[in-house]
UniProtKB/TrEMBL annotation:
The keyword Methyltransferase does not apply. SUPFAM superfamilies: Homeodomain-like. It comes from the Bacteria. GO terms for molecular function: DNA-binding transcription factor activity; transcription cis-regulatory region binding. This is Putative TetR family transcriptional regulator. Residues 35-54, 210-229 bind DNA. It comes from Kitasatospora setae (strain ATCC 33774 / DSM 43861 / JCM 3304 / KCC A-0304 / NBRC 14216 / KM-6054) (Streptomyces setae). Keywords: DNA-binding. Residues 12-72, 187-247 form the HTH tetR-type domain. Signal peptide: none annotated.
Length: 355
């Protein structure tokens, strides 16, 4: 007689629970900061049991991104503004997962995911005002960049108002921006490396750029890069610090004057010219770098506080102003990174996001 093995029944929803936990942890700690053992423990299973659902962490990342994208595409297809806003509140981790951790996926997988999202946006917009629809997604995705939690009804009101203003801004025609390199060129070899790294980290992501590629970008061998920077992480730290210095010099003085409109114009202009830096900053947030974490966090907090002081309406809770400020920053950066949008479009969408 053949002995039959007992059928092992996995609890319903276990896979969805794993994906939810993984998305939350990747959002909070970054892909590299989370182990399969930690994820298994949080779900309440063993690591071997986790591997029965997913072959490894790379597949888990892919499925987590796909799960968020499935929900986003469904909300776009529904054509219900409230459904999209509710999704943004419920799955606020997806913005970070898409922009930062999703860049670690193989190029072929990323291309498939991007095509799906582009098709969903094109269908939702009817082929018109696509830039405005992308701005809406940027504004909603900004919820992943902060921890402000508003009462649900008020959160929905803010997001629906943001959508209305951005789509209205999309009714206008804006001239395309000039084509060519962005950001100032470096004066010396070290500056050249920082400029090249800024561009490459933005376009490909930190993990997808080698020291050999960085050296080739400035006409030197890969090992020669180490004469200027001991590690790639040190080069990333220099990229981010250079950007902060320019923000301090070009935007903070305008903010200090206390008027929102000139400050938005100054930041939009900066975002257009320095979109490689801002793109690298956004996608590499949370990346360990020597002495970088605390300095970056302190600067971001001070930058947002300065904006809130200028943007908050009389009697408006600071938390609501912070939500609008984060939306404005994200919309300006992403609109500039789009490349096809000129500085006038960046300024218009940023102003609409701030309200």
């Amino acid at each position: 007689m053949v002995e039959q093995r007992p059928v092992v029944r996995r609890p319903p929803g276990r896979r969805a629970r794993i994906l939810d936990v993984a998305a939350g942890r990747f959002h909070r700690d970054g892909y590299h900061g989370v182990s399969m053992a930690e994820l298994a423990a949080e779900v309440g299973i063993t690591a071997p049991a986790l591997y029965r659902h997913f072959r490894g962490k790379p597949e888990l990342l892919l499925r987590a991104v796909e799960s968020g994208l499935d929900a986003l595409c469904a909300a776009l297809a529904a054509g219900d503004p409230r459904a999209l806003a509710e999704l943004a509140l419920e799955r606020r981790e997806f913005g970070t997962l898409w922009q930062r951790d999703g860049r670690l996926l193989p190029a072929g997988q990323r291309a498939v995911l991007r095509r799906r999202l582009r098709a969903a946006v094109r269908a939702a917009s009817g082929g018109e005002r696509e830039a405005a629809w992308w701005a809406v997604l940027s504004g909603y995705g900004s919820l992943s960049h902060h921890g402000v939690v508003l009462p649900r009804r008020r959160g929905l009101e803010l997001l629906l108002g943001l959508r209305e203003r951005l789509l209205a801004a999309g009714e206008a025609e804006y001239p395309a921006g000039p084509v060519g390199a962005v950001g100032p060129a470096g004066a010396g070899r070290r500056d050249e490396l920082v400029a090249a790294a800024t561009r490459l980290f933005h376009l490909r992501g930190f993990d997808n750029v080698s020291m050999e590629q960085l050296g080739a970008a400035v006409g030197i061998a890969g090992p020669s890069v180490y004469k200027h920077f001991g590690t790639k992480a040190a080069l990333l730290a220099a990229v981010l610090e250079r950007g902060r210095e320019r923000l301090r010099a070009e935007v903070l003085p305008v903010l200090a004057a206390g008027e929102a409109a000139p400050a938005v114009a100054a930041f939009a202009d900066f975002a257009w010219r320095e979109r490689d830096y801002l793109g690298a900053m956004l996608s590499e947030t949370g990346r360990p770098a020597p002495g970088e974490g605390r300095a970056a966090a302190e600067f971001r907090r001070a930058f947002v506080r300065a904006w809130v002081a200028v943007a908050a309406a009389e009697g408006e809770p600071a938390a609501e102003a912070r939500v609008r400020v984060h939306a404005m920053i994200a919309v300006a950066i992403d609109t500039a990174r789009g490349g096809a949008n000129g500085p006038a479009a960046v300024a218009a969408y940023a102003a609409a996001a701030l309200g």
